[in-house]
Specification:
It is found in: Secreted. This protein has 309 residues and is mainly beta. Helix content is 11%, strand content 32%.
Length: 309
């Protein structure tokens, strides 16, 4: 069932996240999280003066493209819909997906900002492909690659269907998503994969009310991102797992991941919260519930003790 405009625009009211330097810190009580969020992220109409004028102009006259998984929508595929958007796009384009599977590899280039992909929260569509590092290279293996600014996603299942790496096959890493544009947001999305599920590559990003699963480094990259009320599920079965591999190279870089009122699920005490893949990786877990999937040591120095400083 296609989403109506009211649902689409109510979602857009809180996109993107813009917090000022005097923002009140997140509350310790999770029950207050949504009210804190809404207090700081006001509807577009009440904060136009604080936003990029190009963003304000883009939201004034959005275009809606409706797609169906059987190809009977305005375009046969998501890729076709994206190809219809002109380079250096200046208007918000909302791609509304009907339920079902969209089996394709999707890339949104840097010169196509202001794109939203949205599904019905009661019948979430699945974007799925089976790309691997062996075939495409690690960062190009993702089912969805976004390099443009002001991208939004809501109510989507984002999956890579490649087999679980077993340690014997080289290049078995397989991304569900790589997000490399600035000022992006994901609401109520599920990220499904094993090794390297989500490449939080670069730029400022918000993940709210999401689910992310994986095994090794399943959130990695050098983004500056906040995760609110997100479930991080460690898939059991590996001897060791790492939830994050944040890639800050120097102490001067203004990047890092913040997990606020999240939860880590799984079992077996096999997972580190993160490892120093790069020497200055920065990750903060605040007000987060952790299952016994987490190794009590918490962090791995990745066999580089000098990074412990």
């Amino acid at each position: 069932m296609a989403l109506n405009k009211a649902i689409l625009f109510s979602t857009l009211l809180f996109i993107p996240l813009v917090l000022s330097d005097d923002t009140v810190p997140a509350p310790a009580d999770k029950a207050q999280l949504n009210s804190w969020f809404e207090q700081n992220v006001q509807p577009l109409a009440s904060r136009k003066d604080t936003l990029d004028p190009a963003l304000v102009a883009a939201e004034a006259n959005p275009r809606i493209i409706k797609l169906k998984s059987d190809g009977s929508g305005e375009f046969k595929t998501i890729a076709d819909a994206i190809n219809s958007i002109p380079n250096d796009n200046t208007n918000r384009v909302i791609i509304s997906l009907g339920p079902g599977n969209y089996t394709e590899k999707i890339k949104i280039e840097r010169n196509k900002p202001f794109i939203t992909i949205i599904g019905d929260p009661n019948h979430m569509p699945t974007l799925v492909f089976g790309g691997t590092a062996a075939k495409y290279g690690t960062v190009e293996s993702a089912t969805l690659i976004v390099e443009s600014d002001y991208f939004n996603a809501a109510n989507l299942i984002l999956a890579n269907s490649a087999p679980r790496p077993n340690g014997d096959v080289k290049g078995a890493q397989a991304l569900a998503v790589r997000i490399g544009g600035d000022k992006a947001s994901f609401y109520n999305c599920k990220f499904l994969g094993f090794q390297d599920t989500l490449c939080d590559d670069k730029g400022k990003h918000l993940f709210k009310d999401c689910y992310i699963e994986g095994t090794v480094d399943f959130i990695f990259g050098n983004g500056k991102s906040i995760y609110l009320n997100v479930e991080l599920h460690v898939i059991p079965g590996d001897r060791q797992a790492w939830i994050t591999a944040q890639a800050r190279h120097t102490d001067a870089e203004d990047t890092g991941y913040s997990f606020v009122h999240c939860k880590v699920t799984g079992t077996g005490r096999t997972a580190y919260l993160g490892r120093t893949w790069m020497p200055y990786g920065k990750v903060v877990f605040a007000y987060t519930d952790m299952s016994d999937a987490v190794i009590p040591d918490g962090w791995s120095n990745n066999s580089h003790p000098e990074t412990e400083k």
